[in-house]
Amino acid sequence: MIYLDKEENFDDLIKEGIVLVDFYATWCGPCKMLEGELENIEDKIKIVKVDIDKFQKLTINYRIMSVPTMIFFKNGEKSEEVIGFHTSDELLEVISGLK
Question: What pLDDT sits at residue 33?
């Protein structure tokens, strides 16, 4: 998992292949529960974590209204969005639909 450290790096991180971007908050209970599910699939997909409190410009740009919100990018283009807690199996289903 890659924790975004600079907003400028975001486009480089999502430009190739299928990437799951997890918009989360440190104070969010479902986000903490999701962490384990993401660990289960991190060997199958590149995961970028974006803290909504640190990266408000990205949060506004992608219209994140609740957390966790996961946006799937395919070669830099937004493909799919899921909101709320999801199991690793549910996330793998979304991923398989993108390939």
Answer: 96
DSSP classification of residue 64: -
- Whole-number Å distance between alpha carbons of 35 and 16: 23
Q: Do the Cβ atoms of 22 and 47 come closer than 8 Å?
A: yes
Query: Which tokens is 87 given?
Result: 């199991």
Residue type, 14: I
pTM listed for this prediction: 0.95
CA–CA distances in Å: residue 39 to residues 5, 51, 83: 19, 17, 18
Question: What are the catalytic residues?
Answer: 28, 31
Position of tokens 């969005």?
81
| pLDDT single digits (tens) 34-83 | 999 999 999 999 999 999 999 999 999 999 999 999 999 999 999 999 99
End-to-end CA distance of the chain: 20
